[in-house]
Amino acid sequence: MIDHITGGEALNVLKIIGITGFTTESISVATNVKSSKMGRKDIVKIENRELRKEEVDRIALIAPHATISIIRNFEVYEKKGVEIPRYLIGVVRCPNPGCISNTNEPVPSQFEVSQKGLHCLYCDWMITNDIKNYIL
Amino acid sequence: MNHIISIRDLERTDIDCLLDKAALIHANCYDENSLKGKILALLFFEPSTRTRMSFDAAMARLGGTSIGVDSVEASSVAKGETLADTIRVVSGYADAIVLRHPKEGAARLASEFSSVPIINAGDGAGQHPSQTLLDLYTIRQSMPLEGIKVGLLGDLRYGRTAHSLAYALSLYHATLYTLSPKGLELPCAITEELTEGGTAIIEHDDVSTIIRDLDVLYVTRIQRERFPDSASYFRVASSYRITPELLSGVKERLIVLHPLPRLDEIDPRVDLLPHARYFEQSRNGIPVRMAMLQKVIS
Questions:
Q1: What residues of chain A lie within 8 A of the CB of B124, using their CB?
Q2: For a disulfide at B233, which of B4, B105, B227, B256, Cβ 3.0-4.6 Å?
Q3: What CATH number corresponds to the domain at position B214?
Q4: pLDDT for B271-283, tens place per residue?
Q5: Quick check: B109 and A122 CB within 8 A?
């Protein structure tokens, strides 16, 4: 279960983890739920699915306060927050059309995360706004 | 490995060390066989006259030899080979690679796949560290770099030489005056980063109002292709033209630099004034690039 998702971002979280209309998992989605901490939040519950690190990194970019709980036999088996890593490898596309990482070269995109935003380690461009638009 | 990818990778002491070495070479204090038996690969996937020839000449003056390709059409890139593969192959043929490529970040990528040092000779609108080093060297021939007032004029948005120079001058606490046509201003990301680091950047739209305060006027080409039509280009270009009349009353030590090639930005009559240093700047490419080659290869 992914809780404390930024209000309105649940469908983007599903997209990030590859949930489409053709997947077979049983999924519950709640959006704009009242939250004492966040004002409003979204919640996603997916059965029989554990997340990979790259998926958690992507979720952290659009829902930095999200918590991920693994529930087994109706009990919370593990609960953890998400954290944006210092480097994002192959997670975000560089918005600079002239960047070498947007060509057929055999390299993933590489960004360094700072308080100002995401810094492309190839072309030095910064992504400061609308980061979710560039998530791969 | 001793790659030179971006001026931002160099500390002030690294730059000073390279400029000191270039000055010694300029005074003929160097071993002309120091790179004997070494091979430099020149991979130029964009047109170049000065940079390519000066690296070639610099290598020859140090006793080494150069090999290379001059265009995409003449290389396996035309067959669809990736830059990564080209670099892996060529690094087996040479002791260092000088790379010019139209894509930003190309030299950084090349350094990940090369077994020999990479020198970035320009990557799209990105960095051009060897040009910056020779710009600094030329300024230092006339005055100390610390605390100078530098006007950056022309296409500051796409002009990679201006970007690299702005970063380098920030290490010397320079004050930067930027003058550019609307839409071709220094990118906000660069302005913000330098300002946050303590560099004073003052934007102007009329060079005549500030030219008497400047120690250095760095002029770059206003690229015709950035304008919708010829009339718009000539209207803007004429307002950024450096003439002897404009230079009357400037500081005696003011120098005018230009990475060349120039089009209409500098009146040819300026060439005869003592302020004009752009041809000397171009010649300084040899000792500076010799110093760079010695650093990365030896």
A1: 98, 123
A2: B227
A3: 3.40.50.1370
A4: 999 999 999 999 9
A5: yes
